[in-house]
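in:
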């Protein structure tokens, strides 16, 4: 029986069974192409039942598996995010905004891996070899035994890798690779999907580790609809604000380690420097305690990170007051404002609200709720929090405070940086950290009464 053709959109990746001039899903014109190997119809139509496959071997779950061997890059911040070093034959995607420092990070990593004995090939599809060498010079890495190629043709790259047999290949970037068996332009979903698939399956087959660089597109996904993420073992995002020198490498998926780990770097004139004590760095610009400024004791993965939250609340000239957030979730801010109004009776109507996480850090932890509420209230009341105080805890819609995980780690970090008081939810495991007074409250009303002397 002839295979039914299938079509996909080059812009959004939507798969359809018939060709049309305009994609139904995203509305793009002339973006529908026939898929070479893919079929949505599956094997059912191929006559299952008449042609039998071979029986696959089944095992049980109790079989002992040794942990995978790892190679350390020597960059602790990277090794930790990878789950303790690079795993052989693994596929890793490093995503991030253009210009954030992915090529810099990976060239530095390539040099370190190569120095520690891994045969490493760095394929640049974006820059000429001379440009990469210039960067290496600037980074002081010219001695590292990394082999370099400037190429975008996937077939040639695979052939080279097959002959050279490296243990690690870095592909910078996956959007520039193109396969001549696919008709669409480089960077299109079909090309990126094919290139990532070819490279990752080659890596698994040959026992080579591969690191793919991917640019995040405007809506925050790599190459449109996350076409690569599911094919790789590990997905790391390299984030930061353009105007700030801090960069965070964040694991969002890791088959070989925890997925919420972060590594912190600083972009300097000579490349990326590791930041071993991020809290000290994030708090370095903090002046004397002022209204609207609160230090949040956060935890990212296994790592405590203290950051300053800054809020500004001012009468609004607009009929729709502004709500502007940098580094935190706008929806979550709206929730905290609603809880403050409904449960504690403190309205923000007619007031513009700005919230900023200092240093260009992005916070995702719900435990930041209470610190945000404290910053908003402090700004609104124009009253600074007591000096040397950290705040953490989740707020529920009822106004109750929920204990945050890993209280002890947070307190120890705060103590290390000279803080003497912590405001946190009641409950949870009892912890006692020297030289820190832990002030616990069970709901937001009690918190407001306690800290701002009102309710
Ligand atoms: P790059 O690694 O090219 O970003 P990406 O690959 O993510 O697009 O880094 C780009 C920026 O980093 C560029 O604006 C210059 C800056 N940079 C430094 O500040 N110091 C350095 O040593 C290097 C190599 C780059
Ligand atoms: Mg680059």
């Amino acid at each position: 029986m002839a295979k039914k053709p299938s079509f996909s959109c080059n812009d959004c990746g939507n798969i359809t069974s018939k060709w049309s001039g305009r994609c139904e899903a995203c509305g793009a014109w002339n973006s529908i192409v026939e898929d070479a190997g893919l079929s949505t119809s599956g094997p059912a139509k191929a006559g299952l039942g008449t042609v039998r496959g071979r029986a696959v071997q089944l095992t049980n779950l109790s079989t002992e598996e040794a942990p995978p061997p790892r190679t350390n890059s020597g960059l602790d911040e990277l090794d930790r995010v990878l789950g303790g070093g690079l795993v052989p034959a693994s596929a890793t995607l490093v995503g991030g905004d253009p210009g954030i420092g992915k090529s810099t990070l990976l060239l530095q990593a390539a040099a370190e891996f190569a120095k520690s004995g891994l045969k490493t090939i760095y394929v640049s599809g974006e820059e000429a070899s001379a440009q990469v060498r210039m960067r290496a010079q600037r980074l002081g890495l010219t001695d590292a035994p990394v082999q370099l190629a400037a190429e975008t043709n996937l077939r040639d790259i695979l052939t080279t890798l097959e002959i050279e047999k490296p243990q690690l290949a870095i592909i910078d970037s996956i959007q520039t690779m193109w396969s001549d068996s696919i008709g669409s332009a480089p960077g299109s979903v079909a090309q990126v999907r094919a290139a990532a698939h070819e490279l990752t399956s080659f890596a698994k087959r040959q026992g080579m580790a591969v690191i793919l660089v991917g640019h995040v597109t405007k809506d925050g996904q790599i190459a449109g609809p996350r076409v690569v993420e599911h094919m790789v073992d590990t997905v790391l995002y390299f984030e930061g604000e353009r105007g700030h020198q801090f960069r965070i490498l964040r694991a969002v998926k890791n088959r070989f380690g925890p997925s919420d780990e972060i590594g912190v770097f600083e972009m300097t004139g000579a490349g990326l420097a590791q930041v071993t004590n991020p809290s000290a760095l994030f708090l370095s610009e903090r002046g004397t305690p002022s209204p609207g400024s609160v230090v949040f004791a956060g935890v990212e993965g296994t790592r405590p990170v203290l950051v300053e939250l800054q809020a500004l609340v001012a009468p609004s000239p607009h009929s729709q007051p502004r709500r502007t957030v940098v580094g935190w979730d706008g929806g979550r801010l709206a929730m905290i404002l609603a809880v403050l109004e409904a449960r504690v009776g403190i309205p923000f109507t007619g007031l513009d609200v700005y919230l900023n996480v200092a240093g260009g850090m992005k916070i995702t932890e719900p435990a930041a709720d209470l610190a945000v509420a404290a910053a908003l209230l402090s700004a609104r009341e124009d009253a600074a929090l007591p000096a040397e105080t950290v705040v953490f805890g989740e707020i529920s819609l009822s106004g109750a405070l929920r204990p945050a995980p890993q209280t002890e780690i947070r307190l120890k970090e705060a103590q290390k940086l000279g803080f003497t008081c912590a405001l946190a939810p009641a409950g949870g495991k009892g912890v006692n950290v020297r030289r820190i007074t832990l002030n616990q409250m069970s709901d937001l009303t009690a918190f407001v009464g306690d800290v701002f002397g009102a309710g």
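note: The chain has three domains: 1-35, 76-276, 281-452.
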